[in-house]
Amino acid sequence: xxxNLIVAKSIAKKYGRIIAVDNVxxxxxxxxxxxxxxxxxxxxxxxxxxxxxxxxxxDGEVLINGVxxxxxxIDIRKEFGVLSHExxxxxxxxxxxxxxxxxxxxxxxxIQLEEQIKMLLGETGLWKRATDRVSTFSRGMKQRxxxxxxxxxxxKVLFLDEPFSGLDPGASKIxxxxxxxxxxxxxxxxxxxxxxxxxxxxxxxxxxxxxxVADFESKDESVRETISQICGIDACV
Amino acid sequence: xxxxxxxxxxxxxIEAHAKExxxxxxxxxxxxxxxxxxxxxxLTSSSGNIAMLGAGVLWICFVFAGTLGFSRAFASETxxxxxxxxxxxxMSPISIYLGKVVFTISIMLIVEAITVILFxxxxxxxxxxxxxxxxxxxxxxxxxxxxxLLSALVQNIKAKEIMLPVLLLPLLVPVLLPAVSAxxxxxxxxxxxxxxxxxxxxxxxxxVFLAVASIVFEYVIED
Lengths: 237, 223
Fold this sequence. Notes:
Helices cover 37% and strands 27% of the residues of chain A. By secondary structure, chain A is of the alpha/beta class. A six-stranded mixed sheet of chain A has the order 6-7-8-3-9-10, with helices on both faces. In chain A, strands 2-1-4-5 form a four-stranded antiparallel sheet. Chain B has nine helices and no strands.
């Protein structure tokens, strides 16, 4: 039986009068692949930032393996990797320099780091461009390198915020396959692509107006119908 | 502290590739010196006059070139949202702040060293004093500790290029007063006791601002 790796207890995020995330309770099991969907402005990305500790909740707490962020934020972060629609890369550094820097940030060094860089650049098909500046990369290549950046320290949890946004079908397919390969990693994916979420995720969470309004197993027959009602059909395709 | 150094080294690598910051700061500093050397050409024939003007001319160069540098201090972090990846790295936000401060101080000291050499060429006046070096280092630490914090603060503001100097210059008064006064006293060959007093004020301000900025930096980079 899988353990609860991430537990969110009544978390909320308020910006003045605006409530971005409203009293969300959530459990994610170790190794689970969870999709979070919902209309624009539903609070999906904010929820992901709260779970990944890049935002402080206004209320509630997040526990990772039973440890609260407020107790040990720095050690918990060693287990996290983040992939977003933004690359989080430095355009004026080359691919190896980018990965080496982020490896250093996760206390990696020496041969272990160099081998990890070589392996990830090989997996993402970027080895031949390893010494080229990121500013010369296409959007798809940047996103593949960003995927390598997120995995440089072999994280237990991967937070994915619309990683396919702006990618052509070919580049999306490569990222999808890389994601599917990481079956032992707990993955939380914010996406509008419902069909993709149904096909590869274990669970689908639906958010609306900052609240978690539905929680499905992806095999559940009523997923499409319910999501369409909440998001509107156009938003879900 | 090791991660802060990694961040500073990363910024040096970016600067080595991009060559944006150093070139623009040096050019700006050089232009100010040229303008002053032309404007004060009749006064600069006497070393006594240069001793009167020198501290002001040099610190104007340092402050304006430095302000130009601060406006780019977080540019690499915001370009592709890299600050978001740094924020969830396993380290204290203080490391990000200190990394930026170390990089900024280093760049400023390079610019200041070259500015002093250019000053001695254009004004035909050489200043070789260890006290002067200490004053410049002290002033630069205070300047960078405030500048980096404000640079992070204005990153999400629309008119950040305007807001940065507007916020920065008033806050710099406590560092500029002892730094300019001490430099002026050194140029004039003033009393060592007075210079030491200015230095004490300068370094106290450096410590206070570094400490305060380190504490508040986490809230400044929060979304």
